[in-house]
Automatic annotation (TrEMBL):
It holds the Pfam family Fer2. The keyword Disulfide bond does not apply. Gene3D superfamilies: 3.10.20.30. This is 2Fe-2S ferredoxin-like superfamily protein. One of its GO terms (biological process) is P450-containing electron transport chain. GO terms for molecular function: 2 iron, 2 sulfur cluster binding; electron transfer activity; metal ion binding. It comes from the Eukaryota. GO terms for cellular component: mitochondrion. The lineage of its organism: Eukaryota, Viridiplantae, Streptophyta, Embryophyta, Tracheophyta. Coiled coil: none annotated.
Length: 167
C-alpha cells in the first residue's frame, strides 16, 4: 500500500478494453501518486508570534518632498530583510545590483539600506558588514545580513532604500 502525507490510489489496465469483447481482462496495476501541499501557518499560530512592522522609504522624494513608502509585516526573527523585500516585491537593488549581486552572502554591497528607526529590533552588524562599512554611517546595513527581529520582540522598523541615492 502507498503511504504519503496525501496520496491517491489509481488503477489502470495496460491494454485498452474493447466494448463488447469477451476477451479476458488482464490484471490491473496499482499506481501510487503522492501530492505534496505547502500549507502556511494558521492565522492563530501566526497571530501568537511577535510581529515586526516594516516601512520602506523610496530612494528619491516625490515632487512634494515626501518619500514613497512601501509596507510589509514579518514574524520576528524568521527572515532576512532582503528576503522580506523580495517576497513583498519591494525594490532593493539599483540597476547594477539587479544583475550583479552576490545572492545574499554579504560580499558585494549591492543591497545597502539605511535603518532610519527600529535598529534595536535587528541583529547586530555581522563581520561582513563591519568589513564593508568601515567608513560608512552606523545606520547602514546589508539587507542580506540583517535579521528582522529576534523571535521575541515586536515593533516597527523604518528602512531607507538605496541610501547612497538620497539627496
Amino acid at each position: 500500500m502507498c503511504m504519503a502525507a496525501t496520496s491517491a490510489l489509481f488503477s489502470f489496465s495496460p491494454t485498452p478494453l474493447r466494448h463488447g469483447s469477451s476477451s479476458s481482462v488482464k490484471p490491473k496495476r496499482l499506481v501510487c501518486v503522492s501530492v505534496s501541499t505547502n500549507v502556511s501557518a494558521s492565522s492563530s499560530e501566526t497571530a501568537s508570534k511577535p510581529q515586526i512592522e516594516l516601512e520602506f522609504l523610496g530612494p528619491k522624494p516625490k515632487d512634494d518632498g515626501t518619500y514613497p513608502v512601501d509596507k510589509a509585516m514579518a514574524i520576528s526573527g524568521e527572515k532576512l530583510l532582503r528576503n522580506i523585500m523580495q517576497d513583498n516585491k519591494i525594490e532593493l537593488y539599483a540597476a547594477y545590483g539587479k544583475v550583479m549581486n552576490c545572492g545574499g552572502v554579504g560580499n558585494c554591497g549591492t543591497c545597502i539600506v539605511e535603518i532610519v528607526d527600529g535598529k534595536e529590533l535587528l541583529n547586530e552588524r555581522t563581520n561582513a558588514e563591519n568589513r564593508y562599512f568601515k567608513k560608512k554611517p552606523e545606520s547602514w546595513r546589508l539587507a542580506c545580513q540583517t535579521i528582522v527581529g529576534n523571535k521575541e520582540n515586536s515593533g516597527k522598523v523604518v528602512v531607507q532604500r538605496l541610501p547612497q541615492w538620497k539627496k
